[in-house]
Amino acid sequence: MKTPDYLTGGDRVAVVAPARSVTVRQVETFIRILTDWDLEVITGPHLYSMYHQFAGTDDERASDVQMMLDDPSVKAIFCARGGYGTVRIIDRLDFTTFALQPKWIAGFSDVTVFHSHIHRHFGIETLHATMPYSLTQGDIDPASLESLRKALFGSELEYEVTAHTLNRQGHGEGIITGGNLSMLYSLSGTPSDIDTRGKILVIEDVDEYLYHIDRMMLNLKRSGKLDQLSGLVVGGMTDMKDNEVPFGKEAYDIIAETVSGYGYPVCFDFPCGHQDKNLALILGRKVTMDVGEKVHLLFHSGE
Questions:
Q1: Which of 6, 63, 202, 247 has its CA 20 to 30 A from that of 284?
Q2: Using one digit for the tens of pLDDT, what is the confidence trace for 139-160?
Q3: Could you say which architecture CATH assigns to the domain 158-299?
Q4: Catalytic residue flag (residue 274)
């Protein structure tokens, strides 16, 4: 996998909205933080556009992303928020210039479309990390922002978190990949589908019915995506919903049951996803994962 150039003071970065619409208030805090990091911030011409629930039409959103992919002065692209919409524009984008001059693309949730597509076709690392919109939905978590800054500027990333009772102990090494479970499920069988063989898979989700979690996990299992993992990292399963007749299991229990027949290490409740603490993950980077009394995740040096 290729590592984009790390940022240095004075670099130009961009904020775009490839999915749901955002307001100035929902982005300004993040822009101020980037400026405090000595970065020059530019925004897509249609960043604050609205077309139904989207940040502009498909053409407008694709145009903003394409502009930043092609601009050699832009060293990183931050997606303003998730929601839904990135999959509607992914096939409109030309990654030719980006592949020759890689740059960081950062975000999570619906941005999983970018992560998966770029990893499959171009072998370039991307950042699963907090987004501008996230900072207006709760307290600003200093650890999440600092992990994003460290990832962008090339500092070592290493995490140690408390073990969950459902964890399966063990050691694993491999490239980390994945993202939002619903998006991974929706990309299955498409040109943006991921290869999980020998990799550490990370999944998270929000606002899903419990039986949907079961259905999506069974899809991963039946399609072979869980067979040859080196490890599984389960982030937040936030604001789950149930039917009038309860499904009978919580999200973590559903996932634990689905992977019970495998031997690789499994970490539950890792601080990433739709929650205040959303630590940056360099997707596409080799990771060492040790699950014991504590969970230790070490990102190796990039290329």
A1: 63
A2: 689 999 999 999 999 999 999 9
A3: 3-Layer(bba) Sandwich (3.50)
A4: yes
Considering 204, 208, 212, 230, which one is annotated as catalytic?
204
Helix 251-258 × helix 210-222 angle, to 10°: 20
Which sequence spans correspond to the domains of the chain?
12-153, 158-299
Q: Are strands 12-16 and 74-79 parallel, antiparallel or unpaired?
A: parallel
CATH number, domain 12-153 = 3.40.50.10740
pTM of the predicted model, to two decimals?
Answer: 0.96
| DSSP-based helix, strand, coil % in the chain, nearest 5 | 30, 25, 45
Active-site entry in 21, 46, 63, 109: 109
Active site residue 109: yes
Domains 12-153 and 158-299 share a fold: no
* Residue recorded with tokens 């299992």: 221
